[in-house]
Automatic annotation (TrEMBL):
Protein's gene: THA1_4
Name of a matching Pfam family: Beta_elim_lyase
EC number: 4.1.2.48
Domain (Aromatic amino acid beta-eliminating lyase/threonine aldolase) ranges: 7-294
UniProt source species: Stylosanthes scabra
Sequence intervals crossing the membrane: none
CDD domains: TA_like
Superkingdom field: Eukaryota
Name recorded for this polypeptide: Low-specificity L-threonine aldolase 1
């Protein structure tokens, strides 16, 4: 019988804290579609300040935040966006920029650190002289931290270089900053510096910093004005939204400071896993840990995941030989030790079955 559950599937699984629930229950609210909800306005202003942008807009999800941002920049159907072949917008957002916005994605190979080579980005920009046959390049997208690369951080210097390239060709730069606070803490660089070169940024509230719902997109006042209309078009305009945004304000106050601890626990877990025969862990920079199952173990990811689940450890199977684990503020050091003991049990079970 499972007596303890340690949910490491994602940092999106956190439950609202008591402080969040209290803030939600007592939030000052108004109709955010007819006018402006005062608590939402506070959150939007705070996020704009943190990111160094003119204005912000609360949206129900990160997927909608990225979709609105891309569509605001690429407001002519047949526009093209350059983005990484392993990025969240391209892989995990239902192809919304194409199906809803008529925006064509042009992918560039993501390196193992989440970057794209500058020369490859520039080579992907369409020659305006070929507009009779080509889509029109209007936007470049980056992701920081880069989830599929194991939560790798993009430096301010790299982002600046991409921003300069965008300006050189008259393009805009959007950053999917779902875990930008994780990047800021890991690099020791303020958020506003990391996104200084960006024309827009989407920041997830329900990932690293542990709020229950939503994202905020930031940019210029004119960008946000256009984005607000698109939010309504896509069904994202909500009424007394302060009930939700109140929790996000608490998350900003209480949980950003906990991210360094999340990163330390991720490294602790990774170090322990690397000592187990048959497992190999990618270098860890933030709160995401990818585990490779070596062929010699003769165990599938599905089998390890099932074995762990029987002991209350929930992780995510990525492929037949790859597992993802994500740390968050509701995972304790003792949870990490328990998870390691369960991984050890699972791996030893596989070795015994295979006569090792």
């Amino acid at each position: 019988m499972v007596t303890k559950t340690v949910d490491l599937r994602s940092d999106t699984v956190t439950k609202p804290t008591e402080a969040m629930r209290t803030a939600m229950a007592t939030a000052e609210v108004d109709d955010d579609v007819l006018d402006f909800d005062p608590t939402a306005v506070r959150l939007e202003a705070e996020m704009a300040k943190i990111t160094g942008k003119e204005a912000g807009l609360f949206v129900p999800s990160g997927t909608m935040g990225n979709l609105i941002s891309v569509l605001t920049h690429c407001d002519v159907r047949g526009s093209e966006v350059i983005l990484g072949d392993n990025c969240h917008i391209f892989i995990y957002e239902n192809g919304g920029i194409s199906t809803i916005g008529g925006v064509h994605p042009r992918t560039v190979k993501n390196n193992s650190d989440g970057t794209m080579d500058l020369d490859l980005i520039e080579a992907a920009i369409r020659d305006p002289r070929g507009e009779i046959v080509y889509p029109t390049t209007r936007l470049i997208c980056l992701e920081n931290t880069h989830a599929n690369s194991g939560g790798k951080c993009l430096s301010a210097e790299y982002t600046d270089q991409v921003g300069e390239l965008a300006k050189k060709h008259g393009l805009q730069l959007h950053i999917d900053g779902a875990r930008i606070f994780n990047a800021s803490v890991a690099l020791g660089v303020p958020v506003d510096r990391l996104v200084q070169a960006a024309d827009s940024v989407s920041v997830c509230l329900s990932k690293g910093i542990g709020a229950p719902i939503g994202s905020v997109i930031v940019g210029s006042k004119s960008f946000i004005a256009k984005a607000r209309r698109l939010r309504k078009t896509l069904g994202g305009g909500m009424r007394q939204v302060g009930v939700i945004t109140a929790a996000a304000l608490v998350a900003l106050q209480e949980n950003v400071g906990k991210l360094e601890s999340d990163h330390k626990k991720a490294r602790l877990l990774a170090d322990g896993l690397n000592q187990m025969k048959g497992l190999r862990v990618d270098p860890v920079e933030t709160n995401i840990v990818y585990i490779e199952i070596e062929e010699g173990l003769h165990m599938s990811a599905a089998k390890i995941v099932k074995n762990l689940e029987e002991r209350g450890i929930l992780v995510m199977e990525i492929s037949s030989s790859r597992i993802r684990v994500v740390l968050h503020h509701q995972i304790s050091a003792s949870d990490v030790q328990y998870a390691l003991s369960c991984f050890q049990h699972a791996v030893k079970g596989g070795q015994i079955e295979n006569g090792n």
